[in-house]
Model the fold of this input.
Amino acid sequence: MPVHNSEIADIFEELADLLEIEEANPFRVRAYRNAARTIRGYPKNMADLVEQNTDLSKLPTIGKDLAGKIKVIVTKGKLPLFEKLTSRTPKVLNNMLKIQGLGPKRVKRLYQHLNIKNIDDLKRAAHSGKIQTLEGFGEKTEQMIKENLEHFVDEAPRTKLIVAEDIAAPLVEYLKKSNDVKDVIVAGSYRRRQETIGDLDILVTAGKRSNVLDRFVNYDEVDKVISKGTTRSAIQLRCGLSVDLRVVPQVSYGAALQYFTGSKAHNIAIRRMAIEKKLKVNEYGVFKNNQRIAGKTEEEVYRQVGLPYIEPELRENRGELDAAKKKKLPTLITSEDIRGDLHCHTNASDGHHTLTQMVQAAIERGYEYISINDHSQHLTVANGLNEKRVLEQIKTIDQLNEKLNGIVVLKSIELDILEDGRLDLPNSVLKELDFTVCAIHYQFNLSRQKQTERILRAMDNPYFTILAHPSGRLINRRRPYEIDLEKIMEAALQRGCLLELNAHPDRLDLSDEACKMAKDMGLKLAISTDAHSIHDLDNMRFGINQARRGWLEASDVINTRSLKELQKLLRRK
DNA sequence: GCCGTTTTCGGCCCGACTGTTTTCAGTCG
Done:
C-alpha cells in the first residue's frame, strides 16, 4: 500500500506539535508545518516522486533534510525521529492542542505536573479543580477549559463556502447598520474563495465612536463571546462557526484587508519582502522609519513592497509572489468569460426541470450554448437513459434547436464508466451525440491502479470526451476515490480528452492545485455546474472561484469559447 | 529546518486579547 501525501503531512504535523510541546526552536516547528501544508496540497504523489528519484528539495518549504525524511517515510513506512519523539512525549498530547485556549506551553505543564495525557484525563482534572492550582493557571482558565471541552469535537468539519455565504450575508447587513461604519467586508479564506472555511473574518472601517463591536457581540445568533476588545472581538455563532471582527480606521483599510485576507503564508512572505526593503508591514499600513507610507488600499501596500496587485484567490504563497515579481501573474478567468454550461440534467433522468425550462434558464443567463447530459442506463436510481430514450432525446433536441435563436442545445450524456472501463452505451448511439461527459458512479473503492486503469480504458473509446467530477469526492461527506491524476491528465492530453472542473459547491473537483497542474501541462478544462435544476446553473460562480484559485485564465477553459471553437476542441484528435 | 540580488550563516511577521500578574506569558489569527 503506497504512502499517501496526507499521511506524510499528518506525520509532519504531529512532529511539529510534539516539537512545540518540547519547546524546540519555533522556526524548526514552522518548517515542519509549512512542509506538511505543501505535501498535503501537492497534486502529485510523494511516493511516485520518490520512486522516480525526483529531487524533492526543489519543492518549496522542503529542504535537504525534509526531502530525506519524506523518502524514509515512503520507503520504510515510518520515521525514526517520530518514534524517538513519541517515546519521550506521548503522541496523544497533541489532541489537547486542538482545544481552544490550550497551546504547547500549557499542555506541557499539564502533562509534567498533573500527568494529564489525553482529553479524558483533562476532563477529570478540570472537574476536580486541580488545574486551577497549577502555577500559571487560575480559576478562569480552568473554567474556560471545562467549557471548551464540552464543545470539543475531534476534527470539526469546515464550513462549505455556500453555507458560509448564507451565514455571512445577514451578519454583514446587521453590522452595516452600526453608527459611524464605512466598510464591512468578509476577508480571510472566504475572500480567497477557498472551497471550505474554518471561520469568518470580518473587517470593518469605522470611526472611534462607532458602536460596531458592541453591536457585533449582541448579534442575535451569538452563542458565546470568545473575546471582546477595543479593536477586535470574536464570537461563536449558534451554528458553531466562529467569527472574528476587526475594526480599523479608514486610512488603514487596504493594509488591514491585505492582512486579514491572508493567507498566513502569503502575509509572512510579504512582510519578509518588506523587511528587505527596510519597511514594516502590519494591519495599519506600510511603515518606513515609523512613518506610514501606505495603507489606504491594497494596491498601495503591494506597490510599496514592489509588487503589482495580487488577486485574493492567488494569495497562498504558491508561487504568486515570484510570478508577481516577474510580472507574470495570470489574468484570471471571470464569470463574464463563460459562454455556456456543458453538464446539465433534465427531468428525463434525475433533474428537476424540463428540457425547455433548462434551455430557457440558459438563455436568461446569456449563454450561447447549453448541453444536456442526462444519466445513462446503468444509473437506475437516477432513471438513466437507455439507447432508445437517448435517441428520442436527440430527436427532441434537434427539433428544439430548429426553433431556437441565439442559443444552441448540445446533445450529450453523462455516461457511466463501467467497472471494466467500458462505457455504458454502445458507440452506435454515442456517435449521434455532440460529445460525452463520462463519470464514475459506483465501485469507488478500487485500488489506485485499478481505478486509474478503469478511466484510461474508458478514454480509449473514441467517443469519450470529458471526464466528469474526476475525483468523485463530496466535501465533508465522501472522500475522493484513489486515482493517479497526473497519469490521467497525461492520457487525456494524448487522446484529446478533457477534464471537468465540477462547479457544484459540494464537489469542486478538480481541486485548485489540480487545476494548476492541468494548466501547467497544457490540458484544457471545462467548468460545468452539473445542474439538476435551473437554480443550479448559478453554481457556475463556485467553479470560477476554484478555477481562479487554480490560476486558470479564460484561455485554459473551453466553455469560454464561441460555439465554433468549442466544437473544434470537443473533437477528438 | 528553510533560505539566499546580504548565497552556507544568521536571520526567520506582527499585533490583539486574556488571565494571572504587577510587567508579561500564552494563545490566537
About this structure: The mean pLDDT of chain A is 94.
